[in-house]
Write a structure and sequence with these properties.
single chain, alpha/beta, Rossmann fold, ADP-ribosylation fold, three-stranded antiparallel beta sheet, globular
Length: about 300
């Protein structure tokens, strides 16, 4: 299966870099005035940022600071993972489906993003348009992606959040799906026979949190952690355990900490994107602390 990245796996919110130098309410007008999305298509197709910036600054000298802010603050445009998609990817991998990606992205900005997002490790091949100097919806890039990943177009499903890219994929022999949500993607994949109906996890799942980090999360309403060191965005899922695994998890990964430093959280997995991998439940979303209950070690 061939995945688009931005808007399907990764959230891309390109207005945030501009907000570092402009009030947020002025950013939409700036992006429209300079033709941001059309300009961005050029760097996605391999044009060097420095050349593209120089041309745009010459056309809009009053906006030069804002134009240069996009690349300068680019990491702020990548805000995390699209809810639920990586859980679908995990399920597909368990059935033996090979996962590859085809993305319109500048090869100057993608490497840093690639290092930040552990979920991208699930792809055997990622073809980046900027490196190839060709971008979707050009038919050539679909043929190249399939050839590079060793995929037969007639047996490959492609998913993208833009209809023009889906249509182009269909035109090259791929089965195309328009992405609107992870839930709809899963429904579409069930229809195609790539996934069976989901089996809900009935038992509670458990997660160890450092007390200091949990206290901070309770103050700001956001718990970003996947384990004691990595974040959900970095790892791609939140490490959890079933009741029978809690004691072993405590011993293996938190034995150096006193009980006062660690909190065991119990979570009802109903309606959460949880997939069991290697016997352990993985939560493919930030842990919702409002649903978590402090618990004692299960007997």
């Amino acid at each position: 299966m061939l995945f688009d990245l931005g808007g399907v796996v990764v959230t891309w919110e390109p207005w945030h870099p501009f907000e570092q130098v402009l009030p947020a309410d002025q950013v939409p007008a700036l992006m429209e005035r300079i033709g941001f999305y059309q300009w961005n298509e050029q760097v996605d197709a391999g044009r060097r940022f420095a050349d593209a910036e120089a041309e745009l600054c010459a056309r809009f000298p009053a906006d030069a600071e804002a134009i240069l802010a996009y690349r300068k603050h680019y990491p702020l445009a990548i805000t995390g993972l699209v809810p639920g998609t990586v859980a679908v990817m995990a399920e597909l991998a368990q059935t033996g489906v090979r996962l590859s990606a085809l993305t319109n992205w500048s090869d100057e900005t993608f490497p840093a993003v690639r290092e930040r997002l552990g979920a991208l490790d699930r792809f055997g091949e990622i073809l980046v348009s900027g490196a190839e100097k060709v971008a979707k919806p050009d038919p050539a890039i679909y043929h190249l992606a399939c050839r590079r990943a060793g995929l037969d177009p007639a047996k490959t499903v492609f998913v993208d959040d833009r209809q023009i890219n889906v249509d182009a994929a269909v035109g090259t022999g791929l089965t195309g799906l328009l992405f609107t949500s992870a839930a709809q993607l899963r429904t579409d994949l069930e229809r195609l026979g790539l996934l069976a109906s989901a089996t809900p996890i009935a038992d509670p799942i458990y997660h160890f949190a450092l007390r200091s980090k949990l206290a901070e999360a309770e103050r700001n309403g956001d718990y970003p952690w996947a384990d004691r060191a990595g974040t959900y965005t970095e790892v791609g899922f939140v490490h959890c355990s079933f009741a029978s695994q809690v004691a072993d998890t405590r011993q293996r990964f938190y034995a150096d900490l006193d009980d006062a430093e660690v909190v065991l959280l119990r979570l009802d997995p109903t309606n959460l994107p949880v997939v069991v991998e290697n016997g352990y439940p993985h939560l493919f979303a930030p842990l919702p602390i409002e649903r978590a209950v402090q618990a004692s070690t299960p007997a």
